[in-house]
Design brief:
Blueprint lengths: L1 H5 L7 H78 L6 E8 L4 E3 L22 E10 L12 E6 L18 E4 L6 E4 L11 E4 L7 E9 L2 E6 L2 E7 L11 E3 L7 E9 L5 H10 L30
Antiparallel strand pairs: 1-12, 2-11, 3-8, 3-12, 4-5, 4-11, 5-6, 6-7, 8-9, 9-10
InterPro entries: ConA-like_dom_sf (IPR013320)
Keywords: Membrane, Transmembrane, Transmembrane helix
Protein name: LamG-like jellyroll fold domain-containing protein
């Protein structure tokens, strides 16, 4: 008992307890302030991140709008070009136009204008010049009923020609431009094809197709390739000439059956801007002449025969 009496117990004073409580309060306040500061910093970073994201999205929207505008412009240009091509295809001049599509009388004089201001113009493009030179093809069907009654023996019967329209009074041959010119020899069933060159003194410019048939349809193709002119009859080459100079092309009108024309019929006169192959020419021959009447002076009830009949000429060439 005495031992316990001698031991002194030190209890905390009120001041010590107050100091401890103050220290604990300070610690709590500091911790709270640190947490608050960290939350504020996180909020600021989040706000900055959100702003950056919106800026990125805004920049993407601008790029998308620009790309959309470019796409619309491209589509517009494509549609515009297609529209122009379609209008040119159906309303503009053709590369391979028909000068006559159907059948006309050989004595019916016509002029096919080349001036596009004319309502009935059929413009012809100039030759499709390849590496080998100029080239084009004229294609037509003929039905010659007789050789006429020229007593002079000098006047050719005019079938068609492309040129200025001035004709020699004696021979009835175009005096300036034949590019080409097709004539029936007086009193003889020979076909003359003239192709003028840049040298007006050049006389090496005529192909003669002898003994063409009478009262029968036959097809003629005049094919130019550089300086070589070939004449095909019913798909078979009949004659050839090699020009001394290049062909003289012109922008003059196409004249048909001038000064009385010829006794017979003309069908499907057509110009091709390129030199047709023999297969393409034979394809035209296979289709035969177009007997649809396009001449008001031609009796539509007259039977000029089908190209499949015995009157169709295909035996000689």
């Amino acid at each position: 008992m005495d031992r316990f009496r001698d031991t002194e117990v030190n209890l905390p004073t009120r001041e010590d307890v107050g100091n401890a409580m103050d220290s604990l309060g300070n610690t709590v306040n500091e911790t709270r302030e640190q947490l608050s500061n960290q939350l504020d910093e996180f909020s600021k970073q989040a706000a900055v991140g959100a702003g950056a994201t919106m800026g990125f999205l805004d920049s993407n929207n601008i790029f998308a709008r620009f790309a959309f505008i470019i796409l619309v412009l491209i589509l517009f240009l494509v549609i515009l070009n297609v529209g122009i091509l379609l209008l040119n295809r159906f309303l503009g001049p053709q590369d391979n136009p028909y000068l006559i599509r159907g059948m006309v009388d050989g004595t019916s004089q016509q002029v096919i204008p080349q001036d596009t201001n004319s309502s009935n113009a059929v413009p012809i493009y100039r030759s499709n010049n390849q590496k080998e030179g100029a080239e084009f093809t004229w294609s037509f069907w003929l039905y010659i009923s007789d050789l006429g009654n020229d007593t002079t023996g000098e006047k050719f019967q005019h079938i068609f020609s492309k040129g200025d329209g001035y004709f020699d009074e004696t021979t009835n041959i175009a005096s300036v431009n034949n590019s080409p010119g097709v004539y029936l020899e007086p009193g003889v069933n020979n076909l003359h094809i003239l192709m003028d060159t840049v040298d007006y003194t050049d006389t090496n410019n005529t192909i003669v197709i002898e003994n063409v048939p009478l009262n029968k349809w036959f097809h003629v193709a005049i094919r130019l390739e550089n300086k070589v002119v070939d004449a095909y009859v019913n798909g078979v080459i009949s004659n050839r000439i090699v020009l001394n100079n290049v062909v003289k092309q012109n922008y003059h009108d196409v004249h048909i059956s001038k000064n009385g024309g010829f006794n017979g019929k003309l069908s499907n006169l057509r110009y091709y801007r390129e030199a047709l192959t023999v297969f393409e020419i034979n394809s035209i021959v296979k289709n035969g002449p177009n007997l649809s009447v396009v001449d008001v002076n031609l009796n539509a009830t007259t039977n000029y025969y089908s190209y499949l009949s015995n009157s169709w000429y295909a035996s000689k060439y």
